[in-house]
Write a structure and sequence with these properties.
UDP N-Acetylglucosamine Acyltransferase, domain 1, 2 domains, globular, 186 residues, 5 helices, alpha/beta
Length: 186
Amino acid sequence: MIGAYEPRVEPLWSPWVRRSEFVTGLFEAAAVPAGLAVLVGTPFLPPVLRWFGAKIGRRTWIGTTYLTEFDLVDIGDDATIGTDVSLQTHLFEDRVMKMSTVTIKSGASVGTRTIVLYDAVVDNDVTLGSLSLLMKGEHLTPGTRWHGIPAQGATEASALDFDAIAAQRRGRHHRDTPETATKALH
């Protein structure tokens, strides 16, 4: 019905897009509830996703079924894909479907409920924190830590000190007390 997925751009109302969305609907409404959902987080999910066409390395842990254009997903050895991560290989932009690859390299870790958009690369031994968004076309440098929406580089301290991150975004030092923070807001 679709054949192997390849990077492409198609008009929203083209027959190809309709077929692709039909296949996605079958996967999400039939295959996932009928059996794939119980395999999430087990060693049995990666081989099943390989049958669908995803390139998945050895010793991976995958906590999601949120991937659709399987042939465009490449996950390296020893990678961890967190619970409810979306490996988003397509987007609709200006009534056009654009699809391309999502690459998670060896030893990388993608946190819970993170979204990785097409043409993005999470390189070797990268940690991408939970609830992050990796924008299309981004390439994360090997061995680094990232978090946020959009994903930004993180040091060990900033990745763990969420109060400091919140304070930075509010424009104040994280050691301010709640009283001084309240005064600063007024």
